[in-house]
Design brief:
single chain; alpha/beta; Aspartate Aminotransferase, domain 2; 2 domains; binds 3-[O-phosphonopyridoxyl]--amino-benzoic acid
Length: about 475
Amino acid sequence: MNAITNHMPTAELQALDAAHHMHPFTTGDEIAAKGARVITGANGVMLRDSDGNQILDAMAGLWCVNIGYGRDELAEVAARQMRELPYYNTFFMTTHVPVIALSQRLAELTPDGMNHVFYAGSGSEANDTNIRMVRTYWDMKGKPSKKVIISRHNAYHGSSVGSGSLGGMSPMHAQGGLPIPDVHHIGQPNWWTEGGEMSREDFGLMRAQELEQAINDMGEDRVAAFIAEPIQGAGGVIIPPSTYWPEIQRICDKYEILLIADEVICGFGRTGNWFGSQTVGIRPDVMTIAKGLSSGYQPIGGSVVSDEIASVINSGEFNHGYTYSGHPVASAVALENLRILDEEKIVERVRDQTGPYLKKKWEALTEHPLVGEANIVGMMGSIVLTPHKESRASFKSAGAAGFTCRERCFENNLVMRHVGDRMIISPPLVISEPEIDTLIERAVQSLDECHASLKSEGLMESA
Ligand code: PXG
C-alpha cells in the first residue's frame, strides 16, 4: 500500500477519492467527473486546498467550527485524554471524569431547569434519542397515546431514519421509506417565499397557529412534542417573524406539548447568545446539541433535558444509548472548547461587536440588483436572490442563480453556500472585522459575476 499524503498531486487524490469514497448529499458520478476540492489545512477562518488556495470559510465547515480552525489547546487536550483514557463506556453503572465535568458545565450554561444531558455522537443521533425519550416520558406519565411529534416542512434535524423523518426535506423522505409513523409536518415561517400579500407579523402568527390546528385535528392526547430549530439553518437561514415563537410557546403550554428546540446550529453562540432559544425567547423542555459543542473538533452531540423529564426518565431504565455516548476524548475536547468560548468572551463579541458589524454590511447587500432581502442574526445570515425585488418573484429556472453564485464564490475563494436561490453564511464566531470586509468584498464580486452570467444566459426571467 502506498502512503497517501498532502503532497500528492491534486488529480491523483481526486481520482482515488472518487474511486473509493462515497460522499454525503452528492452525486458520485459528478464528483468523479469534476473531482472534489481537496482541503489540506486550515487556520482561523481560512482553509487551504491542495492547489495552495486560501479560502475564506464563511460556513464554519458545516456550521460547526465556532472557535475557528487551528486551536492547539483542543489538540493538546485530546492527546492528553487519549493517553490517560482513550475510551470507556457510560453504560452499566460506569462513568469517567471528562463526561462528569462536561455535564456539570453544560448544566451551568443551559437555561434554568435544564440540568441533565444524554449524549450521542451527532445531532442526528441526539434527535433519534429525543424521539424515544419524549415518547417514553409520556408512557411513563401514564399517557401512552401521546406519540406524535409535530415538525415543519423544510426543517433539518439530521439524516438517520428517525431524525430524517423529523426533518421536512421532501427529497430525503423520497429515499428509504421515510417518514416513520407518527411524525406530522406543518408549514414553515418563511415569509419571503410563502407570505404572499400578508404582513410578516400576520403570516408568522398564521404559521404558528397551524400547530394549534394540527393539535386540535389529531387530538391533544395524541401529541407528544413539537420540534423546531429556533432559526432554520439548512433550510436557508430563515428568521421567523417576531410573532411566531411567542405564539408557539403559548400553544405548547396550553396543550401540554413538549417543546424540543433543535440547537444543533443555533447553540453555542451562533445567534449572539449561548442558545438560540434565548435569542427567540422560548423555554424548551429538550434541546438538541452538537456541532458548536466541540466546534467540530470531535464528533459529539446530546439532548439536554428539563429536570421534570429527567426525573421521570430516571425512575426507570431507558433502553437506549450509543457506544460513544459521552466519549471521553470528545467530552474533554468539548469542555475545552466551552472554556475558550467563555474565557475569550466569543459569544459576547458576536452579540456586541462583530455581529452588529456583519449585520450592517450584510444588510447593505440588498442594494445589489440581485438581492431581494437580507436576514441575519449573530453569525448566521441569508440573502434571497430574485429577478424582481418589488414582487418578491422567484426565478423561472429555480436554483440556477444560487448555484451560479455558489460556483462564483468558490472561484473567488469564498465558501458561501446556496439553498435554492438563497445564499447562506455561518462563519466561525471568531471572524474579525477585516475578515468580514473580505467576506463581503468576495460576496459582492461573486454576485456581480453571477448577475452578468444570468443576464447573458437569459436566466433573469421570473417564474
Ligand atoms: N439538527 C440540525 C438543526 C442540523 O442543522 C442536525 C440536526 C444533524 O446533525 P448531524 O451531526 O447528525 O449532521 C443538523 C445538521 C447543510 C447541512 O447542508 C446541515 C447539517 C448537516 C449537514 C449538512 O446545511 N446540519
